[in-house]
Amino acid sequence: MGSKYQQSVRGCLPLWILMLELILLLVFFFFTSYGTYSKDQKELLGTYRGFQDVVIIAALGLGFLNTSLRRHCWSSVAFNLFLLALGVQLTVLLDGFLNHIFFGKININLTSIQRATMSATSVLISAGAILGKVNLVQLVFMTVTEVTAFSTTRMVAKRFLEADNHVTMMYIHVFAAYFGLTVGCCLPRPLPTGGKEKDQTATSPSLFAMLGTLFLWMFWPSFNSALLTIPDERKKAVFNTYYALAVSAVTAISMSALIHPKGKISMTHIHNAVLAGGVAVGAPCYLIHSPWLAMVLGFIAGLTSIGGAKVLLICLQRKPDIFGICSIYDTYGVHYTFGLPGLLGGIANIVLKALQVKWTETSMFSLKLEIVEITFCD
Amino acid sequence: MGSKYQQSVRGCLPLWILMLELILLLVFFFFTSYGTYSKDQKELLGTYRGFQDVVIIAALGLGFLNTSLRRHCWSSVAFNLFLLALGVQLTVLLDGFLNHIFFGKININLTSIQRATMSATSVLISAGAILGKVNLVQLVFMTVTEVTAFSTTRMVAKRFLEADNHVTMMYIHVFAAYFGLTVGCCLPRPLPTGGKEKDQTATSPSLFAMLGTLFLWMFWPSFNSALLTIPDERKKAVFNTYYALAVSAVTAISMSALIHPKGKISMTHIHNAVLAGGVAVGAPCYLIHSPWLAMVLGFIAGLTSIGGAKVLLICLQRKPDIFGICSIYDTYGVHYTFGLPGLLGGIANIVLKALQVKWTETSMFSLKLEIVEITFCD
Amino acid sequence: MGSKYQQSVRGCLPLWILMLELILLLVFFFFTSYGTYSKDQKELLGTYRGFQDVVIIAALGLGFLNTSLRRHCWSSVAFNLFLLALGVQLTVLLDGFLNHIFFGKININLTSIQRATMSATSVLISAGAILGKVNLVQLVFMTVTEVTAFSTTRMVAKRFLEADNHVTMMYIHVFAAYFGLTVGCCLPRPLPTGGKEKDQTATSPSLFAMLGTLFLWMFWPSFNSALLTIPDERKKAVFNTYYALAVSAVTAISMSALIHPKGKISMTHIHNAVLAGGVAVGAPCYLIHSPWLAMVLGFIAGLTSIGGAKVLLICLQRKPDIFGICSIYDTYGVHYTFGLPGLLGGIANIVLKALQVKWTETSMFSLKLEIVEITFCD
């Protein structure tokens, strides 16, 4: 049932939340309306399915992903639903204000709710790093801060760097993981009483976590392809994500057995590393032209997620005085699930973009040469 | 594994069910056929998805919603599947006979199965109020009675009150909740032996209940929009349901912390109150023109669901002799999850309808005035 | 956490898997490419949903179906994901090589990944019969063998018997069940130490198994209709599967209560028998013209699945010396869930096909007669 709150929280929490909810209600009353619809029924259907897949990822997948520790499991699921419901309302408003300033009322449609759900996912990922250290009020504060920061970042990237919706969204993993870790560093360590018992992994909660992992694994192609509009790019995103996930699942499970002294498969490893491929392929998924490249990314992501976790753990345990100052508190290994693979995906995206530009330049150059030749020949 | 049945049930049950199943088979043999299809493949696809969402709500959502008590959890899921499978077969026939009497064979298509699944949901909701008091034969008897009553009510409302499919279906929550409570009042109280142990809430079953809650939460927009045919109304239904659910989740979780003496979030409250918004917005969802109204409904639904539960509980505990005669037995709080929010939705529907009629009349009146003016001017 | 592996497995396993994965990567690099797309976005959407349903059945349904035994539950889910991820990669390549030899690169599209996922399901079904007896390396070996065997069988049936995609796929249940049982017979019996504890059924794992069962129950219509391309056949497949599943659920639950000495519903029976109807109707689902026939199939499937299990068990226990030689090891009752109902479906398919041919012949004959008459009349 989560950590014990101070007595003061009892009075403070509902006042905070109900006030916030009433403010949101007022803002919605004055500034929003449902848009007029030009799209036909069939397009609604398609968007609705994509939207629902994102909701499944956020509410169910990320909710149950963080249930493997015995004493946090219930609060993890409940907090997740709370943060999602609050975060979506906030993000719809923020996105509306940031993108359509001075244009009267904010139009609410399925696409804007879908994007808001995806942005709110950042809070859910960050929460995985600090669960057990924070109470609900602190989480609400973090939600407001993180959602504002992420929406602003996206707006800036879109306006000044001319990045598209897909790319600005796909850096969510890196952003959320390191935001969560930073918050975790700033917060005081939780009291060590009963800490051992709290961190115990049990079979039944672990199966719930596996349920969350599986839902994420199955619906990740929908997440990666949600904001792509060109059919061809969308198909590539789906295929590449599927292949990367398949390879990273195989790699993670065999790596987990390699690392364990008795060759057993560790539950925690699977929860973390199975998804690494999907995260890594997130940003560049629409650029990859053949399955082997996605598979290579999935392979490396699986290796780094488990290998990196093991190496970092050993380093930290050996030299606690050197690294002591930046001792990372990470309840559910958000760093290995979302942080490292997200970085890998970012690098892959930049390399692929650069290669694409080079290829285009080369072909432009050869085209020019041809034109020049043709002109000369003429 | 349920309660212990009397010895006689062992012989009685399968005879009953197998006989019923054979009768159903014969009726299907003589009176039904698959219709000829005029719709194209793409429309099938859309209907199939909507149908599947309803099945997920019925089989998975309501099946797992009622698993939070340790000793009922298994029987709850198994009974739920049984009642659903039986109820759908009965309802398809009943709907067919009531709506197409004297027209030869009943045409079975996806829409009719979808509606039958939604009607059968009433039995699943009612069962939540009486689980632990009843054996399977009693449940079968209740299924036959309730499905007949609900289908007849719908038919009467459609024929004589000219209500549409959506509205007649959306009163299912109120109907089912109070049907279940009435049945619970009529049944003798279960033996008190081991009652305490039976009613214990445990973490692992509670997570299963949370799984059911989440599935209901995620797929509720599909349920509320399933029977609307005009695209614009459908979109409004989806948006309004989503917003009402989001607000009721936030409200319910903060209210739960307010009521608990230590500021903790109660599992039972969440299972009950998170869905209240979706239930409340069910009937009027296609009439609401802007998100704030849906959010207000969700807010009130969340408050009444938890607050009402608390107040009623205190009243009943204080004056047991006065209320003793109508002491309500409600295993899983069906009254607070479906009853009260359903009533709220009914009132909202009537008010909105009346306002709409008034608005239309006003605009008609001003239109007439204008016409008169124009005529005079001429 | 699965059975204890020998020390040697620790070094052997990851080498094997990583080598296999690298070989797969190389083959993908040289022999595959994403096809050029002629289909429009809407068709992608439809195929993507069908594909996702199959993934849900494979990863979630079959993963959680086999979690009812306390000590296998975790390894069952993890192994399932591993086998699925590996099996799909293998099958995509195998299907490509077997069907498009000498045509350059293999085109990968959603349909081929969907078929590969369905074929890989055979490994997951077989694994249910031998879990607890095998380690991961043996499972990988079985995957390679079974996937090759099944793909070859399908190719042979398609080329030489001119069977269509649907029929060749629907024999997967029979193939997988008896493949698994054969492998189980060949493997040495597991050490009996702690066997009792391992085979214990507990409530919480059983609810997970019920979750898997429910997902299979809900998405089975998608599986049975996935490879049918004519809209009319597809609709029939969906309807028939739904009715067969509904009837088999009712029959299985009442039969389970009939067999139990105290009239209780056995969890294991439900996990096995509820799906029997869907399996039985798999092959002939597109041929059945009215619901009653599907319901009869579901009824018989439910009866044989539970009745057959009971009778066989009694026989085996009474005369262990006679049947000792072929004593079947079947961890999760794959024989009753997939084997027997699959055989029933096969017989039904043959009978219906024969009747259809006869009907066609009769009508052809009467048509000829009519033509002759007309000719004579002229």
Automatic annotation (TrEMBL), chains A, B, C:
One of its GO terms (cellular component) is plasma membrane. Residues 20-363 form the Ammonium transporter AmtB-like domain. It is a multi-pass membrane protein. It is found in: Membrane. It comes from the Eukaryota. GO terms for molecular function: ammonium channel activity. Keywords: Membrane, Transmembrane, Transmembrane helix. The chain crosses the membrane at residues 12-31, 51-69, 81-101, 139-157, 169-187, 207-230, 242-260, 295-316. Its main location: membrane. This is Ammonium transporter AmtB-like domain-containing protein. It comes from Catagonus wagneri (Chacoan peccary).
